[in-house]
Amino acid sequence: MGRKHMRSYEPHDEAEAAAIVREAAGRAERLRLIGGGTKAGIGRPAQDEATLSARGLSGLTLYEPAEMVVSARAGTPLSEIQSLLAERGQMLPFEPVDHRRLMGTAGEPTFGAVAAVNNAGPRRINAGAARDSLIGVRFVNGRGEAIKSGGRVMKNVTGLDLVKLMAGSWGTLGLLTEVTFKVLPVQERVATLAFPGLDDARAVEALSAGLGSPFELTGAAHLPAGIGGPEARTLMRVEGFSDSIDYRLGELRRLLRRYGEPEIVEGEAGAALWADIRDAAPLAEPREAAIWRLSTAPTRGPTVTAAITAEREARWYYDWGGGLIWLTTDAAGDAGAATVRAALRAQGGHATLVRAPDAVRAAVPVFEPLPEPLMRVTAGIKAAHDPAGVFNPGRMYAGI
User: Fold this and answer.
1) Domain assignments of the chain as residue spans, ordered by start
2) Backbone angle region of 158, left / alpha / beta, with phi > 0 → left and psi within -120 to 50 → alpha
3) Three-class SS of residue 164?
4) DSSP symbols for 204-245
5) What is the DSSP letter of 27?
6) What is the pLDDT of residues 256-273, one digit of tens each?
7) Per the CATH hierarchy, to which homologous superfamily does domain 281-363 belong?
8) 311 torsion bin: left (phi>0), alpha (psi -120 to 50), beta (else)
9) Does 1-186+371-400 match 281-363 in CATH topology?
10) Cα separation of 114 and 311, whole Å?
11) 294 - beta bridge partners?
C-alpha cells in the first residue's frame, strides 16, 4: 500500500479509539501513533500501514491548583496546558523539550507525548524526568481494552507499575488517552551564573562543585566556544524568592571563585538561553547533520567527547552537569554510531540517534541496543500489551 493512500484514524473519545484498535488488531493492521507530529522523525523509520492520531482526544479533564494536579486528554496541545498553569503561577516541573527546531517540524506538541517519550529538559537535575511527575494514565492497549492506572494521588504500587512503564515507551505499548501530572509553583525569580572561558574538564568540575553545594541548582550546562557564542560559557541556574537568590548567588560566587568572575543573566535573556539549551537549538543547523543524545556519568562527559572527536569531527555541549551530551556529526555512513557507542562502552552510558536520514536510522540502532536478556524482557512486555504488534512496530527496536 503506498504511503499516500494510507488510512488515517482520528478518534474523538476513548471508546472510539478502543474500537479502532480492536478492528486493526483483528486484521493485523499496523498503526503509527501520532500526536502533533513534532517528533515523527525520531526512532526507526515507520513500518506501518495506517496512522492513529490522538489529536481528537483533546481537552482538560481535571485541574486542582491547590492539590497541584492537572489531567488532560492526550491530544491536548501542550501549550494550552502550560498557559493554563502559568495563569495560576504553576508549571510542569521537568521543563519539557520542544523538538520542533531540532527536527524541523511544525505542528503542536501534545500533552500525551510528554509522557510517551518521558520528556525532560534542564530542570531534570532538580525535579526529575516526566515519569517522576506522572501519577496517572489512561490508555488503550493492543487488544482494544481501555486501561486506567494511577490517579490524582501518588500511591504505593504493587505489581507492574503501568504509569512508569508507559513513560518513555514511545507509543509501542498503547495509545495514551489521558495523562495526569503533579505540577509545581513558578518561582519568583530565576538567575544564572555564567562563567566565561572554561574548557570542558574545568567546566564540568565547576558544575559538579555547584551541584554538590547546598544552593540547589535547577540548571547546570556548559557551552564550549563556538556553541551559542564565540567564548565558552559555563551556566548555573538558581530559582526561588529574590532574597534567597541574592544569598545563593553570593555564596556560589565565593565557592567557585577559582573558576573566574561570572556574569549574572536574568529575565528574558536568561529564559531564552535555557530554552535554547533545552531544545538543542545551538546544534540544529546544519539540517543535514546527525544529532546524538548521550547520557553518561557527569564527570566522564569530557572523556567521552574527547574519544569521539579523536575519531570523528563533531560539535557538542553539556547539560545536566555534564551527564547529558548533545552532539552533532556528519550523517554519512553510520552517522558515527560505532565511534559514539564505543566511547560510551568505555566510560558507561547510552546514546540515542535523535536525527538522521531514514536510510541511516534503518541501518543503525537508534535507541541503545539492549543486552539479550533485557531484549527478551522488552519483547515479552510488548507481546503482553500489544499481542498483534499493531502499535508503532519497530520504532524502538527491530522486530518489536
Assistant:
1) 1-186+371-400, 189-279, 281-363
2) beta
3) helix
4) HHHHHHHHTSSS--SEEEEE-TTSSSSS-EEEEEEEE-HHHH
5) T
6) 999 999 999 999 999 999
7) Malonyl-CoA ACP transacylase, ACP-binding (3.30.70.250)
8) alpha
9) no
10) 35
11) 325, 351
Secondary structure of residue 347 in the 3-state scheme: helix
Distance, CA of 303 to CA of 300 (rounded, Å): 5
What distance in Å separates the CA atoms of residue 236 and residue 218, rounded to the nearest whole number? 8
The answer as to CATH 3.30.70.2190 being correct for domain 189-279 is: yes
What is the 8-class DSSP label of residue 45? Answer: P
Residue 237 contacts residue 218 (beta carbons within 8 Å): yes
Alpha-carbon distance values, 22 to 46, 47, 140, 149, 355 (Å):
21, 19, 10, 20, 33
Amino acid at 137: V
CATH code that applies to domain 1-186+371-400 = 3.30.465.10
pLDDT for position 160: 55
pLDDT in tens, the chain (400 residues): 344 567 999 999 999 999 999 999 999 999 999 999 999 999 999 888 899 999 999 999 999 999 999 999 999 999 999 999 999 999 999 999 999 999 999 999 999 999 999 999 999 999 999 999 999 999 999 999 999 998 764 444 444 589 999 999 999 999 999 999 999 999 999 999 999 999 999 999 999 999 999 999 999 999 999 998 999 999 999 999 999 999 999 999 999 999 999 999 999 999 999 999 999 999 999 999 999 999 999 999 999 999 999 999 999 999 999 999 999 999 999 999 999 999 999 999 999 999 999 999 999 999 999 999 999 999 999 999 999 999 999 999 998 9
| 357-385 pLDDT tens trace | 999 999 999 999 999 999 999 999 999 99
